[in-house]
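Human: If only I could read backbone structure tokens as easily as an amino acid sequence. Take your time, and here it is.
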Amino acid sequence: MSYLKQRSSLLTYGVSLILAIALLGGCSKKSNKKTANLVYVNWAEGIAYTNLAKEVLQDKMGYKVTITSADVAPAYTAVAQGNKDAFMESWLPTLHKDYIERFKNKIVDLGIIYNGTQSGLVVPDYVPIDSVSQLNKYADKFNNQIVGIDAGAGIMKTAQEAISKYNLKLHLLSSSGPAMTSALKKAIDHHEWIVVTGWKPHWMFAKWNLKFLKQDPDKIVWKKGNIHIFGRKNLKKDKPELARFLSNMHLTDQQISGLMLKERNSDQPEDTVAQRWMRNHPNVIDSWIPKNNQTAMK
């Protein structure tokens, strides 16, 4: 082959290679918009509807989805720094108000996924007390402790605030959501006294007869509220369809309780249970999917 022909062949190959790289880069950039990186806390309701969101995004909308469990503080930090697209469980106006204030310029509220949350100190209904102020009188019956969850959780901060407001002699024990319900089950099985940090929505209220301890009018710590989804600052610009989907997500108390109970009672993985729930509730799912995507999928 002559020098000129060899040079021409190399030039043609080089141009082709550059075009191929450019096309691959363009496809990669486009496909990145069809990804979702979601972070949630290892709490029953968050596990349930985050897995449901994953299944809908993958099965109905063609997304590649990654879900990550984390404590509350790292979850907010990951979204604020842009490492995750959205945090799936912000409890407002009380439990997570400190995190929202800290990161308010770096995260955006995508809307409410659940209305009417309740949190506080919870006991089995056979325990003959009804208010937080009665705990000191029976502190020894509760082993001088309140069984809590993750140390960084908002309910742990408000529980500590309650201990101060009511001058409680009980120690707040940090553990995790699953560890707390395990301790609750053990106590109920033996008809023992126990007080835990509890919240609704949660499957434990469907499984056992429980009650929230009442608060004194002048010592209110917990208020009813809602669960929001918060996204990273530029999510609506970078991934508008994903942002719209997350904004559209909403579950009633009956829906989320049913989903949580199915996951709790099933020996199958959460995503499998979520798939089945998705298939059995097409009208709910369709209401979440942005209209342009529904048309495209059909």
The chain has two domains: 34-116+225-297, 118-212. The radius of gyration is 24 Å.
